[in-house]
Design goal:
Elements (H helix, E strand, L loop, with lengths): L2 H10 L2 E8 L2 E3 L11 E4 L2 E2 L7 E6 L4 E6 L2 E6 L11 E3 L2 E7 L10 E2 L5 H16 L5 E16 L2 H10 L2 H11 L1 E12 L3 E2 H5 L13 H24 L2 E2 L2 E7 L5 E5 L6 E3 L4 E3 L6 E2 L4 H12 L15 H4 L6 H19 L7 H21 L10 H10 L4 H8 L5
Parallel strand pairs: 4-8, 9-11
Antiparallel strand pairs: 1-3, 1-5, 2-11, 5-6, 6-7, 7-12, 8-9, 9-10, 11-12, 13-17, 14-19, 15-16, 17-18
Helix pairs in contact: 6-9
Length: about 400
């Protein structure tokens, strides 16, 4: 166990409570799963009192957790929702949840809220097994299926929240029991090297003055190493005839671009001190057309990448007045990353001295924590490039306040 990785996760993640319920599971390895026999983790609202054991784990995305067992990091994916009114409900072994059928902000065309559907589950097994075969630091160790599940159909997350805010609990349960559609839900369990995502490290470089905290050349070298490593891993998948997971919608976006949905983005590459590992394969599938590879490589660079601006919050006349606040260093890093992805995809990863990887990662995470606090961003905020851009533009940090805060950097 690398205890410094644990320290990093304390900065980057919040913990949530998880319960162990009765359910059969399947082993994929000789080693046992990190639970008692026929106990599996779940995050739900319980409609009755139970004596289920519980434990605290780090949140990893909206439906997954990360915890330690025998010196390894275990990721349990598709086990419910950690908090809020949208949490699935557990009723004497039956699960009630929701199916979203047209949410443009999510990768999937259809989402079983909090869990995986059968097709997602099969893709996850397929992609994870390939990554492990290719030598990546991920190991599929087990899965479970919940076979008594009922769901209500809704359009998207906006529709889900609106519906739940206006319906009473008793009425909601009546709808589930009388009109809910039966299905099965799936969870998977993997060993992973960490849960530090390339994309979340890139959030650090959205902020001005980051080069006052970290040497800019070290940042450029690190971004180049990350980009080339991402490109190399994606090329390995493509050479094996497999997509990380990308599909294109039938309509163009408001900007006239293809409507691309992909798991191949910087948030799905895990970082440790030595190399990178791909994760989240619930869209993985065999390649059908050569053009799919080019689209997926484009997605790796451009989809949900904090090095690019998500939106403009400048006043309407700001550009004319010449007062638009740009971040030239952030823009330079975006070009370095894109070029490095191309190099890694065609030639292989650009290496970086191991101690420099370790030192730079340490500084980036400390700088992210520093900027989050300086700009008064919520500790549990994950993602949301557009919102962070908005805060950066609108919150004016005085030089004296930065200098005062800087005196405590790293503490």
């Amino acid at each position: 166990m690398n205890y410094q990785i644990m320290d990093y996760l304390k900065v980057l993640r919040q913990k949530t409570k998880v319960w162990l319920v009765d359910n059969d599971y399947k082993h994929f390895k000789h080693q046992s799963l990190p639970f008692d026999n026929n106990k599996v983790p779940i995050m739900c609202d319980f409609l009755h009192e139970y004596n289920f054991k519980s434990f605290n784990a780090y949140e990893s995305g909206n439906r997954s957790i990360l915890f330690q067992h025998d010196g390894k990091w275990i990721k349990a994916k598709g086990i419910g929702i950690p908090e809020g009114i949208t949490r699935p409900m557990f009723d004497k072994g039956r699960i009630y949840t929701y199916k979203l059928n047209n949410d443009p902000g999510m990768c999937h065309k259809h989402i079983l809220w909090g869990f995986m559907q059968r097709d997602e589950h099969k893709c996850e097994l397929y992609g994870t097994s390939l990554a492990e075969k290719l030598g990546q630091k991920i190991e599929l160790i087990g899965m479970t299926s919940f076979d008594d599940v009922k769901y209500i159909n809704l359009k998207d997350r906006v529709d889900l929240f609106r519906f739940l805010k206006k319906v009473k609990r008793d009425t909601l349960l009546d709808i589930f029991r009388k009109d809910g559609t039966k299905t099965s839900a799936y969870s998977t369990y993997c060993v992973v090297p960490s849960d530090i995502r390339v994309g979340e490290l890139f959030f650090t470089f959205m902020f001005p003055n980051v080069t006052d905290l970290i040497d800019p050349d070290s940042i450029k070298d690190y971004v180049e190493w990350l980009g080339s490593s991402c490109g190399y891993l994606l090329r390995q998948f493509h050479n094996s005839g497999t997509l990380h997971g990308t599909w294109v919608g039938p309509n163009y976006t408001s900007l006239g671009l293809l409507d691309i949905h992909s798991n191949s983005y910087t948030g799905n590459y895990l970082v440790d001190y030595e190399d990178l590992t791909m994760c989240d394969f619930d869209l993985s599938k065999p390649i059908e057309k050569e053009s799919e590879k080019d689209i997926e490589k484009w997605a790796l660079v451009h989809v949900e990448n904090p090095l690019y601006y998500a939106g403009s919050y400048r006043p309407k006349d700001a550009l004319n007045q010449g007062i638009a606040r740009k971040n030239p260093f952030r823009e330079e890093l975006s070009k370095i990353f894109e070029q490095a992805v191309d190099v890694g995809y065609s030639e292989g990863p650009i290496d970086m001295e191991k101690n420099l990887k370790r030192e730079t990662l340490d500084l980036i995470i400390k700088a992210k924590k520093f900027m989050w606090k300086l700009y008064e961003l919520p500790e549990n905020l994950v993602g949301q490039i557009e919102y962070v851009d908005y805060v950066i533009f609108n919150k004016k940090i005085k030089p004296k306040d930065f200098i005062k805060a800087h005196s405590n950097f790293g503490n």
